[in-house]
Amino acid sequence: MKALVDPEHRLASGLEAIRNQYQVPGPFPPDVLAAAEAAAKRAPVEHADRTATRFVTLDPATSTDLDQAFAIEPSGGDLLLHYAIADVAWFVEDGSPIDAEAWRRGETLYLPDGKAGLYPPVLSEGAASLLPDGPRPAVIFTVRIAPDGAVTLDGAERAIVRSAAKLAYDSVRDADLPPGFAELAARMQANEDRRGAARVDPPEQEVSKVEEDGFTLTFRARLLSEDRNAMLSLATNLAIADALHAHRTGLFRVMAPPDAHAVGRLRHTAVAFGLDWPAYATLEQFERTLDARDPREAAFMLAIRRAGNGASYEPWREGVTPWHAAMAATYAQATAPLRRLADRYVVRATLAIANGDAVPEVVTDAFGRLPAVMARADAKSGQVERAVIDLAEAVMLSGREGEIFPAVVTDVDDRGARMQLRDLPVVTRVTADGSRPGDDLCVKLTTADPGRRLVAFERVG
Questions:
Q1: Are 313 and 323 in contact (CB under 8 A)?
Q2: How far apart are the first and last CA of the chain?
Q3: Nearest residue to 201 via CA among 171, 231, 177, 156
């Protein structure tokens, strides 16, 4: 969960309760830690030497679990992306204590004051992480990006790489990055526009101090470096998905578009934020006009993410083309194996098919079992994220009981009227009392209880 950051630890008193309620994993068991310590000393023997290639990483400044490093070179009119991905499978043997614990966890869970990692730190923030303090084993995917943004997987190999620099989103300069970085991102963006993709990457919510003792929720705008960097993973995951599907294997991310009811609710949400969504424009068309640097539009981007049906995992099936509506493409995830269990197996399958080998039986078997495991992990991540935001909203509004807030009704069902506050990124409910979607309301805050993570309003006027 990276939707909320709390640098001054103003939510600390409520986070432990969230960990307990949702059984967020704690420290790793001793046998897992011991196995990880031993695995971290494993010397690579099946890896080509690619340390002469200048790879760099680009992440948040504080990140130490670095899944990806990259290099870019021209190839005629095309660009070649050499995307080095942490070779987690080299350190984690099938059936080992580390492997069994990863299957129990599913993915890394993020909270504002820390994370519950998928793998022990000696691996995820040490031997397997592509840090710039020495050579690391990796799997390099070489992806060809055509001038129109079309992608193909040119090859994959196990290799030793050396990161030349740990670059940060908020301080990176163009001169630090490989030539072609901005051009690659532009090609991918143009291709997304042509496909009609509707990816939504809302900025992080932050707990910001106001006055002496209060705080509020604000949005930190995404940086250009973040958006461009995301295109490297996108290119790789799209190319891998096409290659896997062509070889009749794989594990894919699939997602249906928001249904008509959700789109209608979003139109009312746009009204709440004072956004001009033309009646003739589809959701996908309107999404492409949004600017995450505008707090109102950033809040609406978050509303779009929450309105979707959610993505899930689906193994390859005969006669079925897996489809991700937001990507407007067949899509797989392989670029974050330190943080997602499924990626480790997608990496292994892609490495096999790219080199003419059979996909290991243990990987094919995992593709059948992973959807349920990842669904549980994703559900827990979503529950934790929602609980943290509920906590932040309750703490933010505590002491403001009795205040009146303007709102717009976005939906009405048997639980009442769902409403969006006009001036804050808060969604809540009141008794319907004849309300209809699109109605303007004034509501009074009656309860803001951080201990119960509860915010309640009543309709006035």
A1: no
A2: 38
A3: 231
The residue type at 52: A
The pair of three-digit structure tokens given for residue 128, joined into one six-digit string: 């397997």
| Tokens, residue 326 | 């937001």
Q: So where are the chain's domains?
A: 4-257+309-397
Taking alpha carbons only, the member of 453, 450, 409 closest to residue 431 is: 409
Helix or strand or coil: residue 449? strand
Q: Give the residue from 405, 420, 401 showing the smallest Cα distance to 459.
A: 405
Q: Tell me the two tokens of residue 408.
A: 């717009």
Q: How many CB atoms lie within 10 A of CB 295?
A: 14
Q: Which of 196-200, 326-330, 395-399 has the lowest mean pLDDT?
A: 196-200
The structure's pTM equals 0.88
Confidence of residue 77 (pLDDT cuts 50, 70, 90): very high
Q: Which residue has the higher pLDDT, 104 or 325?
A: 104
Q: Which helix (H) or strand (E) holds 131?
A: none
C-alpha–C-alpha distance, residues 352 and 337, integer Å: 16
Contact 450, 437 (CB under 8 A): no
pLDDT digits (tens, 9 = 90+) for 427-455: 888 887 788 888 888 999 999 998 999 99
φ, ψ (nearest 5 deg) of residue 167: -90, 150
Q: In the chain, pLDDT over 90 holds for what percent of residues?
A: 65
Q: Are 241 and 329 in contact (CB under 8 A)?
A: yes
Query: What mean pLDDT is predicted for residues 30-46?
Result: 96
Strand-pair category, 427-430 with 151-161? unpaired
The alpha-carbon radius of gyration of the chain (Å, integer) is: 23
